[in-house]
User: Which sequence fits this backbone?
């Protein structure tokens, strides 16, 4: 489809590539972000790839919106259709427990055993569509349809960092503690946002995620190593 | 050298120009609600524009320093004293160890700034000292300041001259708040867009560093109020299911799933931020091109801010001191003092 340009005031615009949430559109958004970054256009300050649109912040003293639009159209037209698969993260998860307090209730709602919910949740490959809402918070697509579940009527005031959530058709890993109306079925000792690291943000838009069940002892051990500043997981990069 | 908070207003935080460039990782830029006022506070203290200041809402607090320091309060006129001596906002003053700087209520403004020579020197987080309260980043522990907090100060030269601005309040004016329609104005019927542009809105008490909720006509969207989440910027006017517009401000979240009917232009956002609760306002649409021209002119004006400052000779009576001595009539014709006189003449404590 032809991209639509949506003005966001005098210093940003949204370059929209589709109407719906789908991996192909999202991959093009991310590829376009990369192309704009590589083009190093003076006056383009910041790029925010989201589900289906690329937000571009610019400095009108250096480049006007009309010129930003023209550059984006040209770069978009020149995009290669084949996009490289993103990095794959294997995220250890302690299912259930204190943080994953909704596991049993969710299983009951679905007429499944908790172990079946875990197996299904851990069987899928998820895509990081975008990072937003809070530092390092990843919106994940790819949740098996059976597990789609409406949010809670009343949000909880405090959900831990590392909580593994389900909100409607989306999955998530909490990056910071905070209020949430999502349902939580587990917890990962990984820190999606950690200021002590050189790269504080673990995931980036376009990454792939798989969840791997671990027992409480392993989770506690990983948590200790993470707390000590150790890197306990490296992404696999597609050849 | 440190600045000690003896008493804190309800929303006192460390701010610098903010941490842009990390929206793609979910990090709001934060920064001041009234950037020109922060810039003026720094200019009056001979600081670079990037120095960190204290931002307060309504009431400032009481402060001590451990070394002589040049300080200035901007944003609006304000009940301001060093010990018992009234001093004026919009000019720098020498604060000595043992003296108490008292920052009372702002008048007809919401956000005030305390600049201090050398700047607040708490360690930068992700490249900035700005506090993002919602995610607990930056400033002092990512939180608002409270009584007893001690803030490190950066080095400052001795014997800096005192400076005075024509007015402590830059972001003012009575005209409509200008907007650029979009990004999702097409999700609103023409009569709803007409409502946005022709009717009056009121600043509600639901406001903080993240957003301002406006009372007034409701703005229902055509196909519901959920969109596929996309990027947001400060100034975006998002409309949730209630139909009540919410203007995103300095601590705006980076992405959002409500349709955004319009965006307040960069040059007018601080003026909106400074409108007291209950203020009536109207919106006026400009094209993106016009808004960019306005922004370019605004930036040029701000770059000239420092040249417009007057040096205040030491020993010269302070503006507020003169006012308190009832010499108002003597200066009433003076253009430089006029804005201060207008707002202050009745209210200075003696």
Assistant:
């Amino acid at each position: 489809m032809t991209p639509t340009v949506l003005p966001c005031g005098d210093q940003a615009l949204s370059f929209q590539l589709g109407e719906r949430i789908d991996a192909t559109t999202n991959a093009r958004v991310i590829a376009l972000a990369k192309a704009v970054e590589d083009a190093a256009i003076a006056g383009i300050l910041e790029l925010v790839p989201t589900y289906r649109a690329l937000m571009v912040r610019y400095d009108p003293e250096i480049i006007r919106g009309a010129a930003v639009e023209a550059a984006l159209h040209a770069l978009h037209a020149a995009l290669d259709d084949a996009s490289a698969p993103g990095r794959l993260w294997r995220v250890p998860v302690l299912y259930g427990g204190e943080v994953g307090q909704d596991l049993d209730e969710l299983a009951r709602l679905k007429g499944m055993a908790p172990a079946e919910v875990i197996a299904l949740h851990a069987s899928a490959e998820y895509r990081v569509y975008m990072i937003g809402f809070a530092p390092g918070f990843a919106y994940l697509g790819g949740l098996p349809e059976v597990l789609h579940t409406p949010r809670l009527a009343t949000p909880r005031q405090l959900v831990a960092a590392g909580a593994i959530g389900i909100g409607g058709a989306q999955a998530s890993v909490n990056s910071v503690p905070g209020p949430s109306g999502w349902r939580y079925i587990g917890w990962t000792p990984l820190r999606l946002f950690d200021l002590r690291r050189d790269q504080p943000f673990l995931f980036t838009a376009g990454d792939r995620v798989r969840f791997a069940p671990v027992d409480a002892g392993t989770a506690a051990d990983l948590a200790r190593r993470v707390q000590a500043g150790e890197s306990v997981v490296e992404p696999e990069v597609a050849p | 050298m440190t600045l000690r908070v003896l008493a804190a207003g309800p929303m006192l935080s460390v701010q610098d120009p903010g941490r842009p460039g990390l929206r793609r990782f979910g990090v709001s830029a934060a920064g001041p609600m009234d950037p020109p006022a922060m810039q003026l506070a720094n200019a009056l203290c001979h600081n670079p524009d990037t120095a960190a200041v204290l931002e307060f809402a309504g009431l400032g607090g009481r402060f001590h320093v451990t070394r002589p320091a040049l300080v200035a309060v901007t944003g609006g006129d304000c009940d301001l004293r060093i010990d018992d001596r009234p001093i004026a906002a919009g000019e720098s003053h020498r604060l000595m160890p043992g003296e108490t700087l008292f920052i009372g209520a702002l008048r007809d403004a919401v956000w005030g700034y305390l600049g201090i020579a050398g700047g607040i020197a708490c360690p930068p987080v992700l490249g900035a000292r700005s506090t993002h309260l919602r995610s607990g980043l930056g400033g002092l522990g990512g939180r608002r300041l409270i009584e007893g907090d001690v803030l490190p100060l950066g080095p400052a030269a001795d014997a800096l001259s005192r400076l005075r601005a024509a007015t402590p309040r830059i972001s003012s004016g009575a005209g409509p708040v200008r907007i650029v329609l979009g990004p999702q104005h097409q999700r609103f019927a023409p009569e709803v867009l007409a409502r946005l542009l022709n009717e009056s809105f009121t600043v509600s008490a639901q406001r903080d560093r993240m957003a301002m909720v406006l009372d007034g006509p409701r703005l229902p969207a055509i196909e519901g109020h959920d969109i596929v989440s996309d990027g947001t910027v400060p100034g975006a006017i998002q409309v949730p299911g209630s139909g009540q517009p919410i203007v995103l401000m300095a601590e705006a979240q980076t992405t959002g799933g409500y349709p955004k009917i319009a965006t307040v232009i960069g040059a007018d956002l601080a003026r909106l931020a400074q409108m007291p609760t209950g203020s009536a306002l109207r919106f006026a649409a400009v094209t993106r091109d016009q808004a960019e021209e306005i922004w370019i002119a605004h930036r040029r004006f701000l770059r000239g801010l420092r040249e417009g400052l007057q040096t205040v000779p030491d020993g010269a009576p302070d503006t507020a001191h003169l006012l308190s001595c009832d010499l108002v009539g003597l200066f009433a014709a003076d253009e430089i003092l006029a804005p201060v006189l207008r707002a202050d003449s009745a209210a200075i404590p003696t």
